[in-house]
Amino acid sequence: MTQRHDGRSADQLRPFSLERGYISAAAGSVLVRAGQTVVLCAASLSDKVPPWMVGKGKGWVTAEYSMLPGSTRPRKERERKKVDGRTTEIQRLIGRSLRAVVDLEALGEQQITVDCDVLYADGGTRTASITGAFVALVDAIAAIPEEQKPTRSPILDSLSAVSVGVVNGEPVLDLDYPEDFAAAVDMNVVVTGSGRYIEVQGTGEEATFTRDELTKLLDLADTGTQALAAAQREALGADWPL
Predict the structure, then answer these.
(1) Is 205 helix (H, G, I), strand (E, B) or coil?
(2) What residues contact 119, with CB distance under 8 A and at least 6 apart?
(3) How far apart are CA 222 and CA 189, in angstroms?
(4) Strand blocks (E) in the chain
(5) Which residues fall within 8 angstroms of residue 194, CB to CB, at 6 or more apart?
(6) How many angstroms separate the CA atoms of 4 and 168, rounded?
(7) Which label site among 8, 115, 125, 178 has the fewest CB atoms less than 10 Å from its CB?
(8) Any idea what DSSP says for residue 102?
């Protein structure tokens, strides 16, 4: 394959890091860096669940996502009153992904909200948000007050997410913005630590893709999410819940 513009091989992630405890006010927080993309994930606890969950003996996990005005060029307007469609779709994806690996009954009647704020966007903001949100969620559950602490771990599995795509005719892993912009096929893949898929979002951009290309993309996603899961385990260390 022709070398990618940043020198990476087709199956190579951008430099990735997780910095836990980035802000003290949140029950769990992590600063995620994936190449130049930077996302702050902060998890907050509440003893109130949504109205439709009251009395069911189950908790709830949800997410909010936002791109700060200075995260892109030109400046992104603040979403003061109405959240745009892209934001709604991404925060629903993050929430769905987190709930797929949480036992809501074990969590009990309390809610965890994970806010994912993009500080700098260079591609892969939703996937970086999901990968970081899991770490923030683990720390938030550990911070639940003793009298409300679950009697068993609500964490069923880990999860991470990565982008893949077809760029210049070749399947590649972890697209940055120039690659995402030029990609003929763009896909986001959310995978559990045990290798089960939570969500696969893929589309051709004025293009189509073959079954063979799809298989290659999923193989690349598996490689990437395994590496991200290892980074999560390293970041959490002795606090790894599984």
Answers:
(1) coil
(2) 38, 39, 40, 68, 70, 71
(3) 9
(4) 16-20, 28-34, 37-46, 60-67, 111-120, 159-167, 170-173, 185-192, 197-204
(5) 157
(6) 10
(7) 178
(8) B
Q: How confident is the model at residue 73 (pLDDT cuts 50, 70, 90)?
A: confident
Instruction: Count H helices and E strands in the chain, helices first.
Output: 5, 9
Q: What is the pLDDT of residue 68?
A: 87
d(CA 147, CA 127): 34
Give residue-wise pLDDT tens across range 78-88: 876 667 788 99
- What predicted TM-score, i.e. pTM, was given to this entire model? 0.95
Give per-residue pLDDT as tens, 91-107: 999 999 999 999 999 99
Q: How far is CA 84 from CA 107, 178, 181, in A?
A: 31, 23, 20
CA distance 158 to 27: 19
**Burial letters 214-228, b for 16+ CB under 10 A, else e:** bebbbebbbbbbebb
User: Which residue has tokens 């896909």?
Assistant: 187
Residue 120's CB is within 10 A of a number of other CB atoms, namely 16
pLDDT for 184-237, tens place per residue? 999 999 999 999 999 999 999 889 999 999 999 999 999 999 999 999 999 999
Buried/exposed 131-160: b ≥16 CB within 10 Å, e otherwise:
bbbbbbbbbbbeebeeeeebeeebbbbbbb
Query: Are 230 and 161 spatial neighbours (Cβ–Cβ below 8 Å)?
Result: no
Euclidean distance between CA atoms 206 and 70, whole angstroms = 30
CA nearest neighbour of 119 among 1, 47, 29, 45: 29
Q: Which amino acid, 194?
A: S
